[in-house]
Amino acid sequence: MSTAHTVIVCVLVGIGVAFSLSGALGILRMPDLYSRIQCSSKTITMGALPALIGLVVGEGIVSSYAARALIVGFLLLVVNPAASHALARAAYRA
């Protein structure tokens, strides 16, 4: 792997870690349940996607890791909004 690839992977993973850390702090600091749900759902997506893209860049697009990372990223984009909506709806009904 070249130096440019290493730098790109490190930047992407750093962005993912920064979003995940800000989400964890947001969950601790937000006053109500709905704000916490928003913090957790947005930062899970924005924290995991750059890390998964970094994996794809690091391992190469034709590896089995890349295929799995792309599938997980797609499922994350589809399932995470539905899960956060279900949590908010259950909280509202309770």
Q: What attributes does this structure have?
A:
94 residues, mainly alpha, 89% helix, 0% strand, elongated
Instruction: Please describe the biggest sheet, giving its number of strands, its sense, and whether it closes into a barrel.
Output: none
The helical percent reads over 70%
Shape: elongated
Helix-strand pattern: HHH
Strand runs, count: 0
Low-confidence stretches: none
- From the alpha-carbon coordinates, what is the Rg to the nearest angstrom? 16 Å
Describe this structure in words.
- By secondary structure, the chain is mainly alpha-helical.
- The protein is about 90% helix and about 0% strand.
- The chain has helices at about 5-30, 35-60, 65-94.
- α1 (about 5-30) runs antiparallel to α2 (about 35-60) and α2 packs antiparallel against α3.
- The protein is elongated.
- The model has no long low-confidence stretch (mean pLDDT about 90).
